[in-house]
Structures are given as C-alpha cells and as structure tokens.
Amino acid sequence: MVSASGILGYGFPESSLKAGLARKPHMIGVDGGSSDPGPHYLGSGKPFTNRHSIKRDLSLLVRGALANKIPMMIGTCGGAGGEPHLQMCNELLQEISCEHDLHFKLALIHSEQNKSWLKERVKANRVHALGAAAPLTDAVIDRAERIVGMMGPEPYRAALDAGAQVILAGRSTDPAPWAALAMHHGMPPAQAWFSGKMLECACNAALPKKHDCLMGTVARDYVEVEPMNPELRCTPLSVAVQCLHENASPVIHKEPGGILDTSACEIKPHSDRAVRVSGMQWLPQPYTIKLEGAEKVGYSAITFAGTRDPGLIGQIDNFVQTVRESVATKVAAFNISPEDYQFVVRLYGKNGVMDAWEPSAGTISHELGILAEAVAKTQDIANAVISVMRVTFLHTDFPGRLCKEGNMGFPFSPSDIERGPVYEFSLRHVVEPDDPCQMFPIEYATV
Amino acid sequence: MPKLKEIAKACKSKNAGPYELTLDIMFEDAATFEKVRKTGVICPELIARLYRVPVASVVFTEFPPAHAYKATIERRIASGAVGDTDVYGAQQHAPLLDVEIPI
What are phi and psi of A424, to 5 degrees? Predict the structure, then answer.
C-alpha cells in the first residue's frame, strides 16, 4: 500500500508516486485531515489546504490508481471531514474526471452527525466524556456548528466489498484507509492497524522527514515500510519516532474497537532503506466512536502594534490594566454590555507564546509587540471595541512619559483587522454506536 | 552540568488532539538515553513542576526504541479557543531546555 503524503494537498514528487505504482501496490491513499490547525475549519466548513493543491494531488492519485486498477482512498476529506469538506473534494474529483475522461465507482462516506440521534444516545447513556470534559448536554449539541464522528476502517471495508474504486471519506481515524485495505485482504488487525499508523503521515516515518510517498507491506506477522524516493530512507529509529508522533502515548494507541499496543515491537532494518516491524498487538475493546464538534463563540477583531519606549516597557502590566479599565468605561458609554465582549492582550517579547506557562516572567525585551483582540457577540461590537482599544493604547498617559505623541508604533493603516466568526472545539466525548457503520452512511455513484 | 538543550537530539511539543499537549525528548543513541535515564531527572514530577499541572495528570512513558521520553499533559486552554497563544502547541517546549542533567 502506498501513502502519498502526510496530508492531501501538501504535495509529493510525481516520480515517487510512479516508483510506488511500479511496485504494484494493492491501494494508494492519503490522509486528508487533522484537528491541529484549530477549530476554525470544522466550524466554518472551509479546508485548510488550498483547492489548487488538493486538485493537483487528487488528480495524480486517482489517475494512477485507475490506470493500475487499484482502489484510491482519501481519509478526512478537506481537513475536518465535515459535509462541506467532503463535497469540496467530490467537486474537485468530478472536475478531474471530466478533464481526463475517467470512469469508476465512487463511494462517499459521510461523517457529519445528526443532532437528534446524538441526543437520544446521550439519554440512553451511550455517550461518555473523555479527560476533563463534562458530560455531554443537549445545549452543547445544539450550539455546535458541526459535529463529526471519527470513523474506523469498517465503513471503508463496506465500500471495498461493494466494489468502490475511489473512496472519499469524512472524518476518520488517521490509519483507517490502510487498516481497512489490509483487513479486506485478510490481514490480522494488529498488523493492519500498525501499517495504517505508519502510513498516515507517509514519510514522516523516514529520513530526512519530507512530504513524500511511503510504501507499506503487510504480512501476517510483520509490517515493512520503505520510502519511494531514493533520497529518503527508513531506519529503525525513524520508524520508532513515528510511534511518538501526535499521540498521548508511544505504545498505547486507542482506536475504535481496540488498542494497538506497540510496547513489545521489534523494529529491525530490512535493507538500508526499509524497516521491518513485528510484535504489535491488538487488544479488542468496546466499540466507541470519538466525536469532534466546533461552536461559534463570537466575532473577532484585532490590532497589532509595538512599543520601543523603555519607560513604558518597565511598567507594561500596569499600563495594560489602565488601558483595559479605560476601554471598559468608554465602551459602556456606547450602551454595549460587558457581557457582550471580551478582550485579550498578548504581549510578544514578554509571554506572548506561553502565557501562564512562561517560566521567564521577569525577562522583557527592549521592544514589545502588543496583539490586542476583541471577541464580541457581533462583528460590529468587536470592531467598536478594537477601535477604542487602539486609540487607548496609543494615547493613555503613564508615569514618566516622555513621548506624548503616541505610545505605539503601528505597522499598518488601517490598523484594525476584522477576523470574522471564531470557533472553539466543543466536544470531547465518545459514543457507542449499534455497529461500526451506523454513523457513517455510504453513498455510491458511477462516475 | 549539561543542560537538556546541549545533550538532546530533539526536544519538542505538539498537540495530541485539541485538548492535550505532548512533549517528546529524544537522544542520539541508546547509550546517552541510558545515562540520562540513570539520573532519574526526567520524570513525571519534573513535567508537573515545569508546567504547573498535577503530577497525577501527567501521562509519562519511557520509550527506549526511539531513545525517548514522552509526556502528555492537558493543554492550558483548548487549541484555538479565545485566549490561546499556540494553536498547534508547537512552541511549548522551552521550559525543558534548561533542565540540568547530572551526567
């Protein structure tokens, strides 16, 4: 099996895909998503990669797969796997198919969740909170802009059984496409899941780490990985490092229906560029699906400025407090309630990157960057608050002030920037479905 | 006494989902990892102290195949929530860099 790249739209060398196809794989796929870029994409329905770059990757993959009569699968289409994300990938696929006169059986696997169904599950006590989350309530479900379930390999297997040649899927656990294909061909779950775990980030498991194609070979008792670009190689260490990637634990990987346990793995070089891993275990668990949701929390406006005044920098915390109080008074005069907005000040050069976790509380640079943000119930209120904040930062007096022309250097005119609606992740729960495919309807089409 | 930034091959932070942050500390070879391991300095208590979280909430794993330690903690605030400063969680590793390792 080939994994083309870490994310659909991040690109890969065409020569690597060709080299992969020359080895006659049983499928090619790529993971399309991540929650890493934050809640905006799930909330807004927009992709975090560009249409042009997605189309370029998708076109090479679908043409390569059809020419070799093997399935092509994309997990978590469009970054967040919601309905608009899936439809965007489908539109691009239809464009490519017209341009290249391609014909195939398509499966679209949906992952957006019906809110009423979810509320029934909550009532039936079949939704469970993870980590520090509170139990899921109807109010949280109602406020969510969009809720997706993270599917396992089963819906992919159902689509393969139905003869689909191209599978575009909504939100999926990253290893799902490869785990599905390996199990479809009778491989045991431990090896199938492990291959997916290695392939989901493609050449993240190789050296040097690049957006490039990785080949994974699954046998009953081992998994082998090898990069398709001759300039790259997998080493036992690079493969072990992939086990650490973006997981809470390097040895316990929680997946729908079980745990992939890699604690007893043996990782050995198979050639100077390929690595063979054995000893992985699959521990079956009650079947649950992880939920992701995003809700709109308001509208944002920001302004950015810097100060080079040592007198001001020396008393920055008091100054920011004075500005906050002054802004609150001025905004109250517009009949805007304090409950309808909040402001956030990030001080770059002090603790702008780590905030409360910053250990060097006393260290301050010779200049400070000030990112002021207003988040409000409407864009109009956010704009009004940021406008007042900008002027107040610029002209508020402080003890020992020598430059009374303005406290801040603003790099832009206009200096206030509307950011539009802002979202927060709002679900941290799993749900027990009746069966692994229940939450993920499959739509077939002949292209 | 060497600091972690002088002897580690990698020392990094990243989201593990929107609500958790994972810290990886890796060494060049098994010998260095073993030497560091014998000091016992890198432990759940260290992570709890540096990031001001309860020690019981630190998921801590030694991972010899990668000559590495992994520690996972709750994010200060969910990724991208109002007031967040690091959506990817990719710049929260700095407190580890100056930890002194008596080897």
Answer: -130, 145
